[in-house]
Amino acid sequence: MKRWKLKRKGALIMCAICLTVASVGLLLLCFVGCDTIDIKGVTATYSGQNHSAPISDCNRQCSCEIGLFLPVCGSDGNTYLSSCFAGCKTNSKDVGRNNDQNYTNCACIPGNSTVTSGACELSKCPHLLIPVVVLEAIVVFFGAMTTTPVMMIVFRTVPAEDKSAGIGVSAFMVRVAGFIPSRMIVAAIVDHTCLYWSDEMCAENGYCKIYDNTAMRKLMFGFLFLIQLISAVAIALAFVFERRERRRIVI
Fold first, then answer.
1. Which pLDDT does position 19 carry in this prediction?
2. Which residue, 80, 110, 154, 169, is most buried by CB atoms nearer than 10 A?
3. In whole angstroms, what is the distance from residue 132 CA to residue 33 CA?
4. What is the rounded CA–CA span in Å between residue 20 and residue 188?
5. Residue 87 falls within a domain, yes or no?
6. Residue span of the structural domain in which 175 resides
7. Helix 213-250 with 8-31: angle, nearest 10 deg
8. What pTM was estimated for this model as a whole?
9. With contact defined as beta carbons under 8 Å apart, do 109 and 74 qualify?
């Protein structure tokens, strides 16, 4: 602002440009990301099931612990919540693989059924890591660039005798309308997108083991986009009032 010698109108235009760039970035982030990995009984169905559920006919007799998450990779290429949910009846250690557990005779896997410790895949799109990080960095950078212009607008708009009160009211509104509700909304989004909860005896729901990546991405970045949209409306209103004031001064 000092280099370009921006006044109130210039500061408002700068805020509008930065908010536009950040908003476009947030919209792109809503659609750029990885889907949740396929896990039988959570995001994928067992054979003969109409909907995803951990308990199926092939593991019903195993009395598996609901909430347990020790992922294993089956010989069929599918990931299961645990060897129990794969219907495995025997196990042994594979010395060649860092003493990982191998399980055999798994009722939920056809043919020569075996599973090994660990999920079959950790991510569906590791190639998107760098583009997403760069895009998020751009959003954060342009979002942060509005801080100084907004403060300068307050300084140059509020009368000198009311500047302290203006800064206090601005800080109060940021915390009341921003920090407090946003934490609750983000927490609600995180809980809402949980697909599989642990079963802890001392907690009502335990904690989340598996999230719906697509739903969380769209809800989280959609919420941030909504905040940017509200900010853009406020900047537009400030621009309108600034033009009216300049016309009144000229007249």
1. 92
2. 80
3. 7
4. 27
5. yes
6. 8-35+126-250
7. 160
8. 0.80
9. yes
